[in-house]
Amino acid sequence: MAINYYGECLSLLSKLHQEHPSFSLGRHLSTALSEYGDVWGLSNKEILYALEKYQAEIDMENSSSTHDEYVDKVVREGMNLDTILDEEEDDDGNF
Question: Which pTM value belongs to this model?
Answer without folding.
Answer: 0.66
